[in-house]
Design brief:
405 residues, 4-stranded parallel β-sheet, Rossmann fold, 6-stranded mixed β-sheet, alpha/beta, single chain
């Protein structure tokens, strides 16, 4: 089974009105009965996710969404959930009923995808029932001459053009899919030391995802990865014949590792690598400086991109708040910020009441979703940073930690 995490997969979402055949089309696309199919409008009430391989694109996640024309109080909530999927959509498939003219929902969606830079394909389903759509009906597309390139007639029932649909979708590769995590910083033959503390917060029997991804990136660059705990770091460096090209540390031991690693050796963290990989490192580095301006009662939002069992020394709910309290308390006699927390897919549309947003590395989010969150902060003038960038800033080594970039 392919174990590529969801955050590293291209997200392909099916959008459209109720009863146009989105669920049937996704089932035909995957060759599996994933979504419940019924002639009753509004059968799909929550987004349905399916991971698969789509060659030559590679690992993807398919998302079936509720109908965009749902009504009533519950229907409006379903529509909001469907539109939230757009935050993480890399490729959009707009599904229309091929037996009727294009509706307002589809007409409004396509310009929105254009505005957000999301590649899209308009698919007329139910070809087995439809008569040919007139040329006049196809002029609803935002740009003339796009009909051949951006539309396709299919039948989820008979399988007509399903293979061509897969080929068309696979060709709509987003431009930032191949962004490197660490490989562009290394040369063949380099040695990279990875510092991985095994404390109470470390998962039993495995490494966390960013650590796995960095090791893979080092190996793909033809370099060597040497992994040790922070307690063995000093001896590990002494045993090397020549200094390593780079030391990558867990952010939580930044202070200790910064004192051990010579100034002549480049140093950064897994979280800072993730900040560059999925976010905007310059924005996050500038955002970390906002901790200097925090006052008593100022609101700070701390966001986790995944949900997990919280432990007594959880970094998001315990360690980061304590670090901020200690730092601001040293500068002001009375300074107790007010902390709020979100996790998983939760992220407020309105963050304007916060003086600072602190995000995790986002390893479980795809790049599109992470960019959406940063953009919300940027638009509302709210500083945002991430765990590793903030910890480096609080320890006075941020300039050093981003020096390799």
């Amino acid at each position: 089974m392919n174990q590529t995490p969801a955050g590293e997969r291209v997200h392909i979402a099916f959008f459209g009105r109720r009863n146009v055949g989105k669920s049937s089309l996704m089932n035909a696309f995957t060759g599996q009965e994933l979504s419940v199919v019924s002639p009753v409008e509004g059968t799909t009430t929550d987004a349905v996710y399916k991971a698969m391989e789509l060659l030559p694109l590679g690992p993807v996640v398919l998302i079936d969404t509720p109908g965009l024309d749902d009504s009533g109080e519950l229907g409006e909530k379903r529509v909001r959930k469907a539109l939230e999927v757009m935050r993480k959509t890399d490729i959009a498939i707009v599904v229309a009923d091929g037996t009727v003219p294009l509706g307002e929902a589809e007409r409004e969606l396509i310009p929105e995808f254009e505005r957000k830079g999301i590649p899209w394909l308009l698919v007329y389903n139910k070809e087995d029932l439809a008569e040919k759509v007139s040329a006049d009906e196809e002029t609803v597309l935002p740009e003339k001459g796009m009909a051949g390139e951006r539309t396709l007639r299919v039948s989820a029932k008979t399988g007509f053009h399903i293979r061509e649909l897969k080929e068309r979708v696979a060709a709509l590769v987003p431009g930032d899919v191949e962004k490197p995590l660490i490989g562009d910083l290394l040369s063949e033959g380099d040695t990279v030391v990875l510092v991985v503390p095994l404390d109470a917060g470390a998962p039993k029997g495995r490494l966390i995802l960013p650590q796995q991804q960095v090791i893979r990136g080092v190996l793909e660059a033809g370099a060597s990865a040497l992994v040790c705990r922070d307690s063995e770091l000093e001896k590990t460096l002494q045993k090397l014949v020549s200094p390593p090209r780079l030391v990558v540390t867990d952010s939580q031991v930044f202070d200790r590792v910064g004192r051990i690693v010579p100034e002549s050796v480049l140093l950064t963290s897994f979280s800072i690598l993730m900040a560059r990989y999925k976010g905007d490192l310059a924005q996050l580095a500038e955002g970390a400086k906002a901790v200097e301006r925090l006052g008593d009662g100022d609101r700070v939002l701390i966001c986790e991109g995944c949900t997990h069992h919280r432990q007594c020394e959880d970094i998001g709910t315990v360690k980061i708040p304590n670090l901020i309290r200690r730092y601001t308390g040293n500068k002001q006699s009375v300074c107790e910020p007010e902390f709020s927390f979100t996790s998983g897919t939760e992220f407020p549309t309105d963050v304007s009441s916060y003086k600072l947003v602190v995000h995790c590395g986002g390893c479980m989010l795809n790049r599109r979703e992470m960019q959406y969150r940063l953009e919300r902060c940027r638009e509302q003038g709210v500083p945002v940073t991430n765990y590793g960038v903030l910890i480096a800033c609080l320890n006075g080594i941020l300039d050093r930690a981003v020096g390799i970039f």
